[in-house]
Amino acid sequence: MKYFETEFTISPYSSDASDMVAALAGEAGFETFEETETGLKGYVQQSLFSEEALRDVLNDFPFEGVRITYDIHEAEDRDWNEQWEQEGFEPITIKDRLVIHDGRHLPEASFPVAIEIDAKLAFGTGTHETTRMICVTLLDSDLHDKRILDCGTGTGILSICALKLGAREAIGYDIDEWSTDNARHNAVINRVDDRFQSLLGDATILNKVEGAFDLVLANINRNILLADLPLFREKMAPGGRLILSGFYTADSQMLMEKAASIGLRLLSQKKDNDWACLVFST
Question: Which of 82, 121, 167, 252 is least surrounded by CB atoms within 10 angstroms?
């Protein structure tokens, strides 16, 4: 996967301004950031990058007297997660009911639900607030015999969690070939591969997927969610639910308005730090 590296210079620099730049750039599709002495380095997939979108979010920077400049170039084509692959991660527990671990770090106690993830990315293991909030929502749901759609499946962790909680079938898709392969691999590790299908593509691939879903999961950035919500709605069964995360609490209102415009009803909302999770129903 090819990335652009963008170096943001913040003048005058402050940690609050740096956090705001990361939040705004995240709305424009940036995935990862590194702190620098004068600002941030941000990384975005070349296929998803829009400089116009980046300019739009930075033009309304809310800190008076702060100037943001940036320089874009192609990122070095290397394994961005080599250290993560080598070190793995310590077991992550959620509500004392779910443990997520890799093959190197086994949990010391037993849990009702255990998921092993051979992950090359920290995001998607349960370390991120958005993944954790969706997992909590799944733990509190009746998933017995439900059909699940996992949009932007990543490591496959949300599908695997749902299947281990009683779901009948899960179909996930992702634009990244590595993610679809890794999701299949993780499904095999967790012995749910007979009920899981991983597809390569964006939301338009749903036009080729037959049938409706009892539960749709989408842990994706705000702009993609806004664009794809109508497609999600079309795949929801009567009485079906939609769980959205991957965006900041400041973006919740526009997503709620978009959902309402296509006939979805807000059931609940959560927040963890500055991140949000919304649950809707048909």
Answer: 82
- Give SS3 for 265: strand
C-beta of residue 114 within 8 angstroms of C-beta of residue 185: no
CA distances from 145 to 168, 215, 250 (A): 4, 11, 35
Could you tell me the two tokens for 203?
């939301």
Q: For residue 29, what are its two tokens? A: 């599709």
Q: How far apart are CA 60 and CA 45, in angstroms?
A: 23
The whole-angstrom separation of Cα 262 and Cα 236 is 12
Q: List, for residues 136-163, the tens digit of each pLDDT value.
A: 999 999 999 999 999 999 889 999 999 9
Residue 104 DSSP symbol: S
Q: Is the pLDDT of residue 105 over 70?
A: no
- Examine the pLDDT at 6 and tell me if it is beyond 50: yes
